[in-house]
Amino acid sequence: MGRKDAERQLLGHGNQRGTFLIRESETTKGAYSLSIRDWDDNKGDHVKHYKIRKLDNGGYYITTRSQFDTVQQLVEHYTERAAGLCCRLIGSCKRGMPKLADLSVKTKDMWEIPRESLQLIKKLGNGQFGEVWMGTNDGLCYYLTKPCLNSVPLTMGLGRDAWEVSRETLSMQRKLGQGCFGDVWMGMWNGTTKVAVKTLKPGTMSPEAFLEEAQIMKRLRHDKLVQLYAVVSEEPIYIITEFMSQGSLLDFLKDGEGQSLKLPQLFPIKWTAPEAALYGRFTIKSDVWSFGILLTELITKGRVPYPGMNNREVLEQVERGYRMPCAPGSPASLHELMLQCWRREADERHTFEYLQSFLEDYFTATEPQYQPGENL
Q: Which PANTHER family does the record cross-reference, listed alphabetically (predicted)?
């Protein structure tokens, strides 16, 4: 069902404010769209749409602060409270049977199902033009097309069983380094994948503390972060990660190609908080400043910050109290958030927890406002 069909049905007779339906997202595979009938003085009856996203572990959410194992649990939650939606859910959309005049290829999205989803059980009768059978739906939401491909495990939401591998699948090839608590080796996993293997020296620290690093890495996934591949949790303990062919960043910058990099490539002045750029004080609050700069890039679709200024001018102007003005088309509330990220005193800047909460609520409040012709 498309966005327009959802709006047509929700605005039909017998539905009131808070009536909803859930449909597959037309643009995001694996996601759903929650469409809700709403009303206000300016627009009268209208429909708002929210995207239901899927977690890697199978859960669902509209905002990450409220996550659910099933879509049914999500619906029950928003039936009890609006929690940032336009209104509380009160009931599912009432849909009438289509008129005979409407039955055409245009109704295929509503009525068409895969032939493979039906099982014919017993023939009930036959006539001149065909037969009638008793059948049943197989209960699956889709017919099965192909088996899941084996791949490197995702680094979010998997438990111990999904990460545990046999020690025999690893072969150590070359020691890369060592420390107080263990060694790091280059190895081969299953004879095909080059990996880095971090080992723990017995008696140097508790296995639980050593494996805590792996527990943290399981929750992180980004192509700019070293990825966790697997663990061997029985002693001697192994943590298996992505192999970095260039070695440590420090060694890379000291030798060869790293020495040819210019300072502006290594130190992004326009993104750096003044206390970090001038005095080398890098803290989580200086990261908050940089996040505020990132927001300007998002709002301006990638425009370089402080247009028309070089690095020296940026440092001088920021020290005098200059802050970038609100960009054309930028919501005032987002610009105010940026200004809070750029407070002179680091302790007065927002926390990342606050920023996450603000942006989740902002996202929930504004996502329903789509331009004509756009779909979820």
A: TYROSINE-PROTEIN KINASE
Q: How far apart are CA 10 and CA 88, in angstroms?
A: 15
Beta bridge partners of 105: none
Fold of 265-366: Transferase(Phosphotransferase); domain 1 (1.10.510)
- Name which of 214, 181, 226, 224 is nearest 200 in CA terms: 181
Task: Give the DSSP letter of residue 165.
Answer: -
pLDDT at 304: 92
Axis crossing angle, helix 332-341 with helix 284-299, rounded to the nearest 10: 150
- CATH class given for the domain over 160-242: alpha beta
198 labelled ligand-binding? yes
**DSSP for residue 127:** -
CA distance 228 to 219: 10
3-92 belongs to which CATH class? alpha beta
What is the C-alpha to C-alpha distance for residues 38 and 47, in angstroms, rounded to an integer? 6
Closest CA to 195 of 224, 165, 227, 217: 227
Structure tokens at 158: 């998997």
Q: 57 versus 233: which is more confidently predicted?
A: 233
**DSSP 3-state assignment of 45?**
strand
Domain with CATH 3.30.505.10 in the chain: 3-92
Minimum mean pLDDT range among 10-14, 112-116, 297-301, 333-337 = 112-116
Q: Average of pLDDT values for 31-50?
A: 87
**pLDDT band at residue 288 using 50, 70 and 90 as cut-offs:** very high
